[in-house]
Automatic annotation (TrEMBL):
Lineage summary: Bacteria, Pseudomonadati, Bacteroidota, Cytophagia, Cytophagales
Location of the ABC transmembrane type-1 domain: 49-335
Name this polypeptide is given: ATP-binding cassette subfamily B protein
SMART domains per record: AAA
Keyword tags: ATP-binding, Cell membrane, Membrane, Nucleotide-binding, Transmembrane, Transmembrane helix, Transport
UniProt GO molecular function: ABC-type oligopeptide transporter activity; ATP binding; ATP hydrolysis activity
InterPro entries linked: AAA+_ATPase, ABC1_TM_dom, ABC1_TM_sf, ABC_transporter-like_ATP-bd, ABC_transporter-like_CS, P-loop_NTPase, Type_1_exporter
Organism the protein comes from: Spirosoma oryzae
Membrane topology: Multi-pass membrane protein
Pfam families: ABC_tran (PF00005)
Principal location: membrane
Membrane-spanning parts: 274-297
Length: 617
């Protein structure tokens, strides 16, 4: 990671810079963004637009009413005799009403912005999760994918800013339209002057926004590492080892180094932004006062009325600040739109493993079985190594196959290919004579149940932890209980005060932690929930005591009666129960046969079996 960071300062800052063209192009994301907002709540969307339209007309109207009031006052004060002030009070009343209306609408708009923002954040979160579910396992093992995911995730809450930003922009633009029309009637040059006055600070701001986006983007991996360090430094899952190995100092140091580095770079940017900001806005202010002097002089020489003076000066001030706001917002808007690009980039990632257009019905029951035809597989992130190579064998229908091999031999990889978590890099896997890729992916996954060695310990109730085997059946309590009985999880659950509703893991409320073997019994229950035709257990009993292991396999034999199963195990007491044993070495098939046939062959299996048997003597 540190290496990567050093490289970045030399070569990737350029790459991370975003050109003007890209910034404008990013605005093209706005329609898609508004579609998201519209989908979040059409009613609030329309309400927001309408209220903002009304509000946009208020500043110009107020200024104009103000002008009329002053002209009235001047006229009345010049009159001799009793003055008729009816019209004056009407005007004052109108200005008061406008002020009240403006505040009321302002409040309503921020309320709607807030509500709409929350709905939008929820909607984006849901879409992020839904999209993640469609992606390939391989994509989750790719660091650049995580960077994208991370940037997209940051979009969920930040997009509220964009929402009110864009709506606010439109409102301001309309408001400027009204005010500008008034100014143009007196002197169109005034409008031009305002534009020139605000340009320097606009350019400056744009430049700094771009730098800050580049900085934040180029730091995505480090920010992820910071999040990770924060998690490792303070979580129930790591606390044990952090304490025992005294890792806290190491973790804190690493966090401090990274975060300080980021802070320093951010600080440098923030300071130069503030300095330039003062200078460039100063230029704008000078331009503004130049025009102001011109207006005042015209009033003094009697070319415009006192009311005109206040109207012009007010409009001028308002247009300038609105324009400044718009231009400033514009640069942050393009920046937000670029962030939005990250979100849409993430949504654009397509899974490579999916169902074909026309699918073949999944055989029920499976007649021939699964045939590996010269299968080879490389993980995308270690493309120079074959995890499996030249693998050919058939897992017959109804057969119980055990996979044996040393660590890293490729056993789990083989299983992942069977479940189509990956597709073979070369060769193919046939199911009843047809490529596994021709079947509907959901049906394949439904008919193949796998309990992995690194199964997930969901911080949810014990019942749900079993029901994940077939989540649609989560309310089917008898089924859950039956599965628990078969996997011996029922004895674990009987000891829990909350029974099946007991929260597991210590992260939430009254959650309780289980022992490794107890968790494994719960996870095994998932295999019984599913009515799969092929059941795969990847080291299912590694954490179980000898008696529990024996019992689990007695029951497993019943479960898999008439179905196919694959068991990965380093325990030969388990392995020998299989119909056939496939020995893998460095990703290749070394030998395959029944326990007795392989012992007779006196090859690697016999050697490993002998080693373990001697250990027990
Ligand atoms: N996600 C991955 N990305 C890259 N390489 C991987 C990945 N998973 C496994 N490998 C590599 O593929 C090879 C086979 O791994 P696999 O997990 O299939 O071994 P295994 O036989 O199940 O080992 P064990 O007995 O330790 O569970 C190993 O060299 C491993 O380093």
């Amino acid at each position: 990671m540190y290496m990567a960071r050093q490289n970045k300062t030399t070569n990737s800052t350029d790459k991370e810079d975003v050109s003007w063209r890209e910034r404008f192009a990013a605005l093209g994301n706005l329609p898609a963004f508004f579609r998201l907002v519209w989908q979040a709540s059409p009613g609030l969307f329309i309400g927001n637009v309408l209220l903002r339209l009304i509000r946009a007309a208020i500043p110009a109207t107020t200024l104009y009413v103000g002008k009329l009031i002053i002209d009235q006052v001047v006229q009345l004060s010049g009159q001799s005799g009793p003055a008729d002030t009816t019209q004056l009070w009407w005007l004052v009343g109108a200005e008061f009403a406008l002020a009240v209306l403006s505040t009321g609408i302002g409040r309503a708009v921020s309320l709607i912005d807030g509500l709409l923002g929350d709905l939008l954040a929820n909607r984006i979160s849901v879409q992020l999760m839904e999209h993640a579910a469609t992606l390939d396992l391989e994509q989750f093992e790719d660091a650049t994918f995580y960077d994208k995911l991370e940037r997209a995730r940051r979009q969920t809450s930040g997009r509220t800013v964009l929402l009110s930003g864009v709506f606010g922009q439109v409102q301001e633009l309309i408001s400027i339209g009204f005010l500008g029309a008034g100014l143009a009637v007196y002197n169109p040059w005034l409008l031009l002057l305002i534009l020139v006055a605000v340009t320097p600070s606009f350019i400056g701001d744009n430049y700094f926004n771009q730098r800050s986006y580049s900085l934040s983007r180029s730091w995505t991996p480090e920010r992820r590492e910071l999040d990770y360090l924060r998690y490792v430094g303070a979580s129930d899952e790591t606390a044990k080892e952090v304490k025992i190995f005294g890792l806290s100092g190491f973790l804190v140091d690493r966090f401090r180094t990274l975060s300080t580095d980021f802070f320093q770079q951010n600080k440098k940017l923030a300071i130069s932004r503030a300095g330039w900001g003062v200078l460039l806005t100063g230029l704008g202010t000078a331009g503004y006062y130049g025009a102001y002097v011109w207006i005042v002089l015209r009033a003094v020489t009697g070319q415009i009325s006192l009311g005109d003076l206040t109207f012009l000066a007010g409009s001028f001030r308002q247009v300038r600040s609105s324009l400044e706001g718009i231009l400033l917002q514009f640069s942050s808007l393009t920046q937000e739109a670029i962030y939005l690009q990250d979100l849409f980039d993430y949504f654009a990632i397509k899974p490579l493993i999916h169902s074909p257009r026309t699918t073949r019905p999944f055989p029920s029951p499976i007649r021939e079985g699964f045939t590996f035809e010269n299968v080879g597989f490389k993980y995308a992130n270690s493309a120079d190594r074959w995890a499996l190579r030249n693998l050919s064998f058939t897992l017959q229908a109804g057969e119980k196959l055990a996979l044996v091999g040393e660590n890293g031999a490729g056993k789990t990889t083989l299983v992942k290919l069977l479940a189509r978590l990956y597709d073979p890099t070369e060769g193919r896997i046939l199911l009843d004579g047809y490529d596994l890729r021709e079947y509907d992916l959901d049906e394949v996954r439904h008919n193949i149940g796998v309990i992995f060695q690194d199964y997930t310990r969901f911080k949810m109730s014990a019942g749900v932890n079993i029901a994940v085997g077939d989540i649609d059946e989560r309310t089917n309590q008898p089924r859950i209980q039956q599965s628990a009985e078969r996997s011996l999880a029922d004895t674990v659950i009987a000891k829990l005060s909350g029974g099946y509703d007991q929260q597991l893991g210590r992260s939430f409320g009254k959650g309780v932690e289980l022992s490794g073997g107890e968790w494994q019994k719960i996870a095994l229950g998932r295999a019984y929930m599913r009515d799969a035709q092929l059941i795969i257990l990847d080291e299912p009993t590694a954490a179980l005591d000898a008696r529990a292991e024996y019992e689990v396999f007695q029951r497993f034999a019943q479960l898999t009666e008439g179905r196919s199963s694959v068991i990965i195990s380093h325990r030969f007491s388990t392995v020998r129960m299989a119909d056939r044993i496939l020995v893998l070495e460095n990703g290749s098939l070394l030998e395959i046969g029944s326990h007795y046939a392989l012992l007779e062959k006196d090859g690697r299996y016999a050697e490993l079996f002998g080693l373990q048997a001697r250990g027990y003597q």
